[in-house]
Amino acid sequence: MPPLFRRAADRLTDAAPGWLVETVRPAPAPLRWWPMLRLAVAVTVPLLLGFVSGNVTTGLLPALGAMNAGIADRGGSYRARIVLMGAAGVAGALGYLVGSMVRGHGWWIVPVVVAVSVVSAFVSTGGATGSAAGLQLLVMTVIATGIGLPGASETNALAFLLGVLWVIVLAVADWPFHPRAPERGAVMEVYQALDRLFSDRDAPALAAFDTDLKRGYDVVLGARSPAAGLDADRTRLVALLNQASLIRNALLSLRYEGREPPAEAASAVRAVAGALAGGPAPRMPPCELGSPAARALCSAVRGAVELVSGGDVAADQLPYEPVGYRSRALSVLEQMWRGHLVRVYTVRLALCMGVAAAFSASGRLERSYWMMLTVALVLKPDFGSVFVRAVQRALGTFVGALIGTLLLVLVPYGPLLLVPIAVCAALMPYGLQRNWGLMSTFQASLVLLLVDLLTHGGPDLGRIRMVDTLIGCVIVLVLGYLPWPASWEAPVGPRLADAVAATANYLRHAFDTEHAGRARLRRGVYDALGDLRTVFQRALAEPPVISRRVTTWMPAMAALEQVADAIAVTVACTERGAPPPPEAAVWTLAGSLEDIAGNIRERSDPGDPGLCAEESLERVHSAVRGLRDTVSGDRRG
User: Fold this and answer.
1) Which stretches does DSSP call E strand in 322-404?
2) What is the model's pTM?
3) Which residues cross the membrane (predicted)?
4) In a 3-state reduction of DSSP, which class is residue 459?
């Protein structure tokens, strides 16, 4: 992408109001050319083969399958990406078959779309894979009801699956040569972020490291086989992530002591990152041993050096319990059926899709399936704020339709259209990285060009697309957003309570060196804090009348992070010479945290945790009191 274009996009999104773009978002990841090129190739090659064969429509469904599966690919291990894209592809093909059966059958489209919406809503609650599969099931059902293609429905569904298979092949082409590349790359990024902590240990730097660490765990654990047995290579990588967490905590301990970390420890961490990138195995230089925090840091860094150099993995570093397919399936089914929010989302989606399908069946709109697609995409619960997505979708489609119309005017029908199609497809991953509106801009342009290949609709397609999208956004806001108070604000309070409870659970066993699951409990704390930050950032993107209320949670979030850091610092010092606290005092503080979690859920004031006479727990006790005072001093709705 030209630097001028990228700078312009950055300035536009940075200057826009908070309710048009994510108000708080991480710094954009480095621009990666391969995902952009891969999607462009995946979409244009089937179309090019269609032109060569003399029938471009034969390439449309494979191109659509490649586009949908390619957008669903969010990175991670090869196995996780194959499962996710494959599930999205199979669900999309099934949706196409269902939609083809009701195409041309008048009002039958309404009950069928509503039924598929209900199924899609429940499937979408089954993690990232279920989310992608549920969306594609509904999207392809809608597309099949609105677009008629020559040939049998079964043949067309297979053509769609061929496109999915094609993009999967492109995505995992490097697998035979570097089978551990995604996992090692994720761990390497964690150690690179850890290297930056040696010079900057402020709250934003710590939050950025915690985000990288959570992603590292997700990638490495997502790569393992669910069959019984442990994978030695991946176990070593997760042990390295555990060591990175220990190094982080030791660095915090040094900060509390007012000391700077030794330079040799920073060099060793940098060398570990280099070894993960394919460099030579590092050697641990002599490390200054003074305070308990310094000993904890040197010990944690030495452990990372030994692991990356091929040393044995300690028994307490085992990263996971082997889980069979049956247990995983039961867990997914439980997630589908539990919770009030799942039922609310299902009703909202079915209602809005039913109204959109009724508009479509009435025949008053041209290409009304675009309206139903807008409803399906904007109401997706795990994509962020519904209000923001509706506004961004409308504005992005408006700009994209203008660009697509201009391209249809300037580029004659024929193979030359493949050039702007390739450019729009390549820009979609970049738009997805920035925000929903920018992605919608490139997607709208691409879809207009693809539809023109089939229908020869010309520039008038842009006007039709804008009208249908605007009506879809209005349906979402009027029926799927305004009447549902729960959709006006993200569940920051419940997530905060979950994070407090996870912290209490870890604190109970934090000083028990014999507890086998201590590393998993520690990871659970930072996972819960990461989820809390994500929900909070989404809530800040709501309109000001809502986002201003959400900001009142910021002091409590900061206080909880101080509690987690105080526990980490105390544990690090205890493991390297400081006197361990009595178990009774630890459990008393853990009980105080559990009480605070319950009070947050009940929206009541927490009680006083009392005095703590244990000097070793003074820092933790002070942080818990700070959290209690923050929560009780500013009750929230």
Assistant:
1) none
2) 0.74
3) 39-61, 82-99, 105-123, 135-152, 158-177, 345-363, 398-430, 436-454, 466-484
4) coil
